[in-house]
Amino acid sequence: MPNCFIDYYKTSGKHQLQAILFDVDGTIASGKRPLPNAAELIDLLKKDKFPFFLLTNDSCNSPEIKSKRLRDIGIQIQPEDIVSCAHTLKNFIREKGWQNLNFFVNGSLGKPSYADLAEINWSDNPEHIRTADAIIFGEGEYEWKFRLETIFNTLIAKPHVPCIVPNPDSYWPLSDGKGELGIGAGAQARFIFQLLREKGIEPTVFYLGKPYPTIYNYTAKILEKLIGPSLDIGKIAMVGDSLGSDIKGGNAVGMHTILVLSGITAKNQLENITPEMSPKQVFDSL
Q: Cα torsion at 261, 267, 271, 277 (round to 10°)?
Protein backbone atom coordinates (compact mmCIF):
# COMPACT_ATOMS: atom_id res chain seq x y z
CA MET A 1 0.00 0.00 0.00
CA PRO A 2 1.41 3.43 -0.92
CA ASN A 3 2.06 5.79 1.95
CA CYS A 4 -0.11 8.77 0.93
CA PHE A 5 -0.52 12.26 2.34
CA ILE A 6 -4.29 12.21 1.75
CA ASP A 7 -4.67 9.37 4.27
CA TYR A 8 -2.71 11.35 6.85
CA TYR A 9 -4.90 14.41 6.22
CA LYS A 10 -8.13 12.40 6.61
CA THR A 11 -7.10 10.68 9.84
CA SER A 12 -5.11 13.27 11.79
CA GLY A 13 -3.62 15.99 9.60
CA LYS A 14 -6.75 18.10 9.41
CA HIS A 15 -6.84 18.17 13.22
CA GLN A 16 -3.10 18.75 13.74
CA LEU A 17 -2.55 21.37 11.04
CA GLN A 18 -4.03 24.82 10.51
CA ALA A 19 -3.15 25.25 6.82
CA ILE A 20 -1.33 23.51 3.96
CA LEU A 21 0.96 24.96 1.31
CA PHE A 22 1.64 22.83 -1.76
CA ASP A 23 4.36 22.94 -4.35
CA VAL A 24 2.97 22.44 -7.86
CA ASP A 25 5.35 20.63 -10.23
CA GLY A 26 6.22 17.17 -8.90
CA THR A 27 3.65 17.46 -6.12
CA ILE A 28 0.27 18.35 -7.63
CA ALA A 29 1.06 17.68 -11.28
CA SER A 30 3.80 16.50 -13.61
CA GLY A 31 3.60 18.36 -16.90
CA LYS A 32 0.11 17.78 -18.28
CA ARG A 33 -0.58 14.87 -15.93
CA PRO A 34 -2.21 15.09 -12.49
CA LEU A 35 -0.30 13.23 -9.81
CA PRO A 36 -2.02 10.54 -7.70
CA ASN A 37 -4.72 11.82 -5.30
CA ALA A 38 -4.15 15.48 -6.22
CA ALA A 39 -7.63 16.13 -7.63
CA GLU A 40 -9.36 14.22 -4.81
CA LEU A 41 -7.32 16.00 -2.14
CA ILE A 42 -8.04 19.50 -3.51
CA ASP A 43 -11.76 18.66 -3.69
CA LEU A 44 -11.64 17.41 -0.10
CA LEU A 45 -9.84 20.51 1.19
CA LYS A 46 -12.43 22.73 -0.46
CA LYS A 47 -15.27 20.65 0.95
CA ASP A 48 -13.72 20.90 4.43
CA LYS A 49 -13.04 24.63 3.94
CA PHE A 50 -9.49 23.88 5.02
CA PRO A 51 -7.04 26.73 4.24
CA PHE A 52 -4.51 25.95 1.53
CA PHE A 53 -2.47 27.61 -1.20
CA LEU A 54 -0.27 26.47 -4.05
CA LEU A 55 3.16 28.11 -3.85
CA THR A 56 5.03 28.51 -7.11
CA ASN A 57 8.30 30.04 -8.24
CA ASP A 58 6.72 30.61 -11.64
CA SER A 59 6.81 34.38 -12.16
CA CYS A 60 6.05 34.19 -15.88
CA ASN A 61 2.52 32.73 -15.90
CA SER A 62 -0.38 34.52 -14.25
CA PRO A 63 -2.53 32.70 -11.66
CA GLU A 64 -5.32 32.72 -14.27
CA ILE A 65 -3.16 30.83 -16.76
CA LYS A 66 -1.63 28.45 -14.23
CA SER A 67 -4.97 27.58 -12.59
CA LYS A 68 -6.60 26.95 -15.99
CA ARG A 69 -3.83 24.50 -16.89
CA LEU A 70 -4.53 22.61 -13.68
CA ARG A 71 -8.30 22.64 -14.23
CA ASP A 72 -7.72 21.30 -17.74
CA ILE A 73 -6.20 18.16 -16.20
CA GLY A 74 -8.96 17.79 -13.62
CA ILE A 75 -7.56 19.65 -10.60
CA GLN A 76 -10.04 22.30 -9.48
CA ILE A 77 -7.71 25.17 -8.68
CA GLN A 78 -8.82 28.80 -8.96
CA PRO A 79 -6.52 31.82 -9.45
CA GLU A 80 -6.99 32.88 -5.82
CA ASP A 81 -5.58 29.51 -4.69
CA ILE A 82 -2.14 30.34 -6.12
CA VAL A 83 0.66 32.40 -4.59
CA SER A 84 3.54 33.19 -6.94
CA CYS A 85 6.96 34.43 -5.92
CA ALA A 86 6.14 37.53 -8.00
CA HIS A 87 3.05 38.29 -5.89
CA THR A 88 5.51 39.40 -3.21
CA LEU A 89 6.96 42.20 -5.36
CA LYS A 90 4.51 44.89 -4.28
CA ASN A 91 4.99 44.41 -0.53
CA PHE A 92 8.74 43.89 -0.88
CA ILE A 93 9.21 47.12 -2.86
CA ARG A 94 7.08 49.09 -0.41
CA GLU A 95 8.96 47.73 2.57
CA LYS A 96 12.17 48.92 0.91
CA GLY A 97 10.65 52.34 0.10
CA TRP A 98 11.39 51.88 -3.61
CA GLN A 99 7.94 52.81 -4.99
CA ASN A 100 9.31 55.72 -7.00
CA LEU A 101 12.24 53.89 -8.60
CA ASN A 102 12.40 53.03 -12.29
CA PHE A 103 12.73 49.27 -12.79
CA PHE A 104 14.08 47.35 -15.75
CA VAL A 105 12.47 43.90 -16.13
CA ASN A 106 14.74 41.44 -17.90
CA GLY A 107 12.44 39.08 -19.78
CA SER A 108 8.80 38.71 -18.77
CA LEU A 109 6.78 38.79 -15.56
CA GLY A 110 3.70 37.35 -17.24
CA LYS A 111 0.55 38.71 -18.89
CA PRO A 112 -0.89 40.57 -17.10
CA SER A 113 2.49 41.53 -15.74
CA TYR A 114 3.24 41.09 -12.06
CA ALA A 115 5.12 44.40 -12.42
CA ASP A 116 1.81 46.13 -13.11
CA LEU A 117 0.23 44.37 -10.13
CA ALA A 118 3.11 45.72 -8.03
CA GLU A 119 2.21 49.23 -9.23
CA ILE A 120 5.77 50.16 -10.19
CA ASN A 121 7.34 52.16 -13.00
CA TRP A 122 8.94 49.57 -15.25
CA SER A 123 10.22 48.88 -18.73
CA ASP A 124 11.42 45.76 -20.54
CA ASN A 125 13.08 47.84 -23.28
CA PRO A 126 16.82 47.02 -23.14
CA GLU A 127 17.61 50.64 -24.04
CA HIS A 128 16.52 51.50 -20.47
CA ILE A 129 18.91 49.11 -18.69
CA ARG A 130 21.68 51.64 -18.07
CA THR A 131 19.32 54.28 -16.63
CA ALA A 132 17.28 51.91 -14.41
CA ASP A 133 17.32 52.40 -10.64
CA ALA A 134 16.80 48.65 -10.07
CA ILE A 135 16.75 45.45 -12.12
CA ILE A 136 14.21 42.62 -11.88
CA PHE A 137 15.19 39.29 -13.42
CA GLY A 138 12.11 37.92 -15.15
CA GLU A 139 11.62 34.80 -17.25
CA GLY A 140 10.47 33.72 -20.70
CA GLU A 141 12.14 33.97 -24.08
CA TYR A 142 14.25 36.98 -25.00
CA GLU A 143 17.55 37.82 -26.72
CA TRP A 144 20.02 37.02 -23.98
CA LYS A 145 23.43 38.20 -25.18
CA PHE A 146 22.82 41.94 -25.50
CA ARG A 147 20.67 42.20 -22.37
CA LEU A 148 22.92 40.17 -20.08
CA GLU A 149 26.07 41.90 -21.27
CA THR A 150 24.43 45.30 -20.79
CA ILE A 151 23.23 44.37 -17.29
CA PHE A 152 26.72 43.08 -16.46
CA ASN A 153 28.41 46.30 -17.59
CA THR A 154 25.77 48.46 -15.92
CA LEU A 155 26.39 46.73 -12.58
CA ILE A 156 30.14 47.12 -12.98
CA ALA A 157 29.60 50.87 -13.31
CA LYS A 158 26.81 51.03 -10.70
CA PRO A 159 27.18 48.08 -8.28
CA HIS A 160 24.75 49.70 -5.84
CA VAL A 161 21.79 49.08 -8.21
CA PRO A 162 19.59 46.47 -6.49
CA CYS A 163 18.81 43.24 -8.34
CA ILE A 164 15.55 41.46 -7.54
CA VAL A 165 15.16 37.80 -8.52
CA PRO A 166 11.56 36.62 -7.97
CA ASN A 167 12.28 33.07 -9.21
CA PRO A 168 15.58 31.70 -7.82
CA ASP A 169 15.29 28.39 -9.74
CA SER A 170 18.30 27.37 -11.79
CA TYR A 171 16.32 25.31 -14.28
CA TRP A 172 12.81 24.18 -15.12
CA PRO A 173 11.23 21.35 -17.16
CA LEU A 174 10.51 22.25 -20.76
CA SER A 175 7.08 21.30 -22.08
CA ASP A 176 8.51 19.55 -25.13
CA GLY A 177 7.75 16.03 -23.94
CA LYS A 178 11.45 15.10 -24.13
CA GLY A 179 12.25 15.64 -20.46
CA GLU A 180 14.72 18.41 -21.28
CA LEU A 181 15.39 21.44 -19.08
CA GLY A 182 15.37 25.19 -19.62
CA ILE A 183 17.81 27.59 -17.95
CA GLY A 184 15.93 29.43 -15.21
CA ALA A 185 15.91 33.08 -14.20
CA GLY A 186 17.88 32.28 -11.05
CA ALA A 187 20.71 30.72 -13.06
CA GLN A 188 20.80 33.64 -15.47
CA ALA A 189 21.02 36.10 -12.58
CA ARG A 190 23.68 34.10 -10.71
CA PHE A 191 25.77 33.94 -13.90
CA ILE A 192 25.94 37.74 -13.87
CA PHE A 193 26.56 37.86 -10.11
CA GLN A 194 29.44 35.36 -10.38
CA LEU A 195 31.09 37.45 -13.10
CA LEU A 196 30.77 40.53 -10.89
CA ARG A 197 32.37 38.70 -7.96
CA GLU A 198 35.25 37.64 -10.19
CA LYS A 199 35.83 41.36 -10.71
CA GLY A 200 35.73 41.98 -6.97
CA ILE A 201 32.22 43.47 -7.01
CA GLU A 202 29.56 42.21 -4.60
CA PRO A 203 26.11 42.74 -6.15
CA THR A 204 23.08 43.83 -4.15
CA VAL A 205 20.72 40.86 -4.56
CA PHE A 206 17.26 39.98 -3.25
CA TYR A 207 15.59 36.61 -3.91
CA LEU A 208 11.83 36.36 -3.37
CA GLY A 209 10.81 32.74 -4.14
CA LYS A 210 11.39 29.37 -2.52
CA PRO A 211 13.60 28.54 -0.61
CA TYR A 212 13.99 32.17 0.50
CA PRO A 213 11.76 33.49 3.31
CA THR A 214 9.91 36.24 1.42
CA ILE A 215 7.29 34.01 -0.26
CA TYR A 216 6.68 32.03 2.94
CA ASN A 217 6.29 35.10 5.13
CA TYR A 218 4.01 36.74 2.55
CA THR A 219 1.75 33.68 2.48
CA ALA A 220 1.77 33.37 6.27
CA LYS A 221 0.41 36.95 6.49
CA ILE A 222 -2.43 36.02 4.14
CA LEU A 223 -3.20 32.99 6.30
CA GLU A 224 -3.14 35.11 9.45
CA LYS A 225 -5.88 37.29 7.93
CA LEU A 226 -7.93 34.14 7.21
CA ILE A 227 -7.31 32.29 10.47
CA GLY A 228 -6.60 35.08 12.93
CA PRO A 229 -3.95 35.63 15.60
CA SER A 230 -4.18 31.97 16.69
CA LEU A 231 -2.18 30.99 13.59
CA ASP A 232 0.87 28.94 14.56
CA ILE A 233 3.50 28.85 11.82
CA GLY A 234 4.57 25.41 13.08
CA LYS A 235 1.11 24.14 12.15
CA ILE A 236 1.39 25.28 8.53
CA ALA A 237 2.46 22.33 6.39
CA MET A 238 4.76 22.90 3.42
CA VAL A 239 4.27 19.92 1.11
CA GLY A 240 6.65 19.48 -1.82
CA ASP A 241 9.02 17.24 -3.72
CA SER A 242 12.22 19.32 -3.47
CA LEU A 243 14.58 19.08 -0.51
CA GLY A 244 16.55 22.16 -1.55
CA SER A 245 13.50 24.34 -2.22
CA ASP A 246 10.27 23.27 -0.51
CA ILE A 247 11.76 21.54 2.55
CA LYS A 248 14.76 23.80 3.15
CA GLY A 249 12.63 26.93 2.77
CA GLY A 250 9.81 25.65 4.96
CA ASN A 251 12.23 24.57 7.68
CA ALA A 252 13.93 27.96 7.67
CA VAL A 253 10.72 29.75 8.67
CA GLY A 254 9.56 27.07 11.13
CA MET A 255 6.85 25.34 9.08
CA HIS A 256 5.93 21.65 9.30
CA THR A 257 7.68 20.26 6.24
CA ILE A 258 6.38 17.24 4.34
CA LEU A 259 8.25 15.60 1.46
CA VAL A 260 6.44 13.67 -1.26
CA LEU A 261 8.46 11.26 -3.39
CA SER A 262 6.41 11.90 -6.54
CA GLY A 263 8.84 14.37 -8.10
CA ILE A 264 12.56 15.04 -8.16
CA THR A 265 13.57 13.44 -4.83
CA ALA A 266 14.20 9.70 -4.41
CA LYS A 267 14.08 7.92 -1.04
CA ASN A 268 17.83 7.16 -1.04
CA GLN A 269 18.55 10.90 -1.07
CA LEU A 270 17.26 11.08 2.50
CA GLU A 271 20.17 9.04 3.90
CA ASN A 272 22.77 11.79 4.28
CA ILE A 273 20.87 15.07 4.25
CA THR A 274 21.62 18.01 6.52
CA PRO A 275 19.14 19.06 9.24
CA GLU A 276 18.12 22.16 7.26
CA MET A 277 16.80 19.91 4.49
CA SER A 278 15.28 17.18 6.66
CA PRO A 279 11.48 16.89 6.32
CA LYS A 280 9.30 16.26 9.35
CA GLN A 281 7.31 13.65 7.40
CA VAL A 282 7.73 11.70 4.14
CA PHE A 283 5.03 10.25 1.89
CA ASP A 284 5.23 8.41 -1.40
CA SER A 285 2.76 10.85 -2.95
CA LEU A 286 -0.28 12.96 -2.13
A: -10
